C-alpha cells in the first residue's frame, strides 16, 4: 500500500452518502476498506476491498475489522456512514421497530468503534460518525430516528473526550436532506414527486437538497488530517436548516 496514504474503513459505502465518501477518499489516494450489506459495491477499484455484512451482528463487525487490518495494517480513519431512516408516529411505533432504529443508527456504531478503535495507528487517527440534522432538532413522525441520531451525537462526543489523549479525534457530521437513493425512493413514492420535492426544499433556507458529493466533502475534511485540532464537534451540512 502507498506510503503516507490513509487506511480508511468506511461503513455504508454501498450507497448514497457512504459511496460518495468512498469516492472522495479514493480521489485523495487513500487505501479503502468498504462495507455495506449488498453483495457488491458498484464503484470498487482494483486494490480496494469490500466486505458485505450486517453491522448489527457483532461477530461480523469483529471479522470486518480483522480483515481490514490484515489487508492494510493499522487504521487511520473510520467513517461510519451506515444507517436506517424510517418514519413513524411515536404511538404507532412498535418496540421492535424502535430497537431496530437504535441498533442500525447507534448500537452498531458502538460495535464498530469498540472493535476498530484498538486497531487505530499508534500515533492517532480520526473518526467521523454520520448523524443527521434530525439528531439536533425534532420533527413529527420520526421520533425514534431522531432519538437514535441524537444518541449517536453523544456517542461521538463521549468518545471524543475519552480518546483525545491518544490523539484519536471523533467528530460528527449532521447532514440535511440529501439526494441519495433512500431519499429519492421516498420522494418517488408520492403521487406528485416534483411537488413533494419542492415542498421539502422550501423548508431549507438554501431552498434545495444537498448533493451526496457536497456532504462527502465535509466528511472528508473531518476524516482527514486537515481537521487536526477539531474533535467532539458536530458539523451541520444542511443548507442552514438547523440555523433557522
Ligand atoms: N440522505 C439523507 O437525506 C440523510 C440526511 C441525514 C443523515 N443521513 C444519514 O446518512 C447515512 C447514509 O444515508 P443515505 O441516505 O446515504 O442512505 P442509503 O443510501 O440508504 O445508504 C445506507 C447505507 O447503510 C448501509 N446499511 C444500512 N443498515 C446497515 C446495517 N445494519 N449493516 C450494514 N450496513 C447497513 C446500507 O447498505 P446496503 O444498501 O448495502 O444494504 C447502505 O450502504 C445514514 O446514516 C443516514 O441516516 C442521510
Structural account:
There is one protein chain. With 244 residues, the chain is of the alpha/beta class. The protein folds into 2 domains: 7-175 and 212-237, Rossmann fold (3-Layer(aba) Sandwich); 178-209, no CATH class. The chain is built from 7 helices and 7 strands, in the order E-H-E-E-H-E-H-E-H-E-H-H-H-E. The protein has helices at 16-27, 58-72, 95-116, 143-163, 181-188, 193-201, 212-223; strands at residues 7-11, 31-36, 49-52, 77-80, 125-130, 168-175, 234-237. Helix 2 runs parallel beside helix 3 and helix 3 runs parallel beside helix 4. The longest helix is centred in the middle third of the chain and has 22 residues, at 95-116. It is globular and about 50 Å long. The chain starts with 6 loop residues before the first strand and ends in a 7-residue tail after the last strand.
Derived from helix and strand composition plus strand pairing, the structural class reads: alpha/beta
SSE topology string: EHEEHEHEHEHHHE
Largest sheet: 7 strands, parallel
Question: What spatial form do the alpha-carbon principal axes imply?
Answer: globular
* Distinct small-molecule ligands in the complex: NADP nicotinamide-adenine-dinucleotide phosphate
Q: How many domains, as an integer? A: 2
Q: Any descriptors?
A:
7 strands, single chain, 2 domains, Rossmann fold, alpha/beta, 244 residues
Concise summary:
Belongs to the short-chain dehydrogenases/reductases (SDR) family. This protein has 244 residues and is α/β, with parallel strands linked by helices.
Amino acid at each position: 500500500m502507498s506510503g503516507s496514504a490513509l487506511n480508511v474503513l468506511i461503513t455504508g459505502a454501498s450507497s448514497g452518502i457512504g459511496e460518495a465518501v468512498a469516492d472522495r477518499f479514493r480521489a485523495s489516494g487513500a487505501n479503502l476498506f468498504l462495507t455495506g450489506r449488498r453483495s457488491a459495491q458498484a464503484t470498487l477499484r482494483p486494490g480496494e476491498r469490500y466486505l458485505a455484512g450486517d453491522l448489527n451482528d457483532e461477530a461480523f463487525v469483529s471479522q470486518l475489522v480483522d480483515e481490514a487490518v490484515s489487508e492494510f495494517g493499522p487504521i487511520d480513519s473510520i467513517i461510519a456512514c451506515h444507517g436506517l431512516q424510517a418514519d413513524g408516529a411515536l404511538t404507532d411505533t412498535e418496540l421492535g421497530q424502535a430497537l431496530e432504529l437504535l441498533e442500525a443508527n447507534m448500537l452498531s456504531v458502538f460495535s464498530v468503534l469498540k472493535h476498530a478503535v484498538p486497531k487505530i495507528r499508534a500515533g492517532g487517527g480520526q473518526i467521523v460518525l454520520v448523524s443527521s440534522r434530525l439528531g439536533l432538532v425534532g420533527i413529527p413522525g420520526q421520533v425514534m430516528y431522531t432519538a437514535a441520531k441524537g444518541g449517536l451525537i453523544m456517542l461521538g462526543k463521549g468518545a471524543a473526550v475519552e480518546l483525545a489523549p491518544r490523539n484519536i479525534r471523533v467528530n460528527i457530521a449532521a447532514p440535511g436532506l440529501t439526494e441519495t437513493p433512500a431519499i429519492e425512493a421516498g420522494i418517488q413514492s408520492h403521487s406528485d414527486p416534483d411537488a413533494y420535492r419542492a415542498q421539502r426544499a422550501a423548508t431549507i433556507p438554501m431552498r434545495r437538497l444537498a448533493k451526496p458529493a457536497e456532504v462527502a466533502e465535509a466528511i472528508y475534511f473531518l476524516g482527514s488530517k486537515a481537521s487536526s485540532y477539531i474533535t467532539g464537534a458536530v458539523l451541520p451540512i444542511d443548507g442552514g436548516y438547523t440555523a433557522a
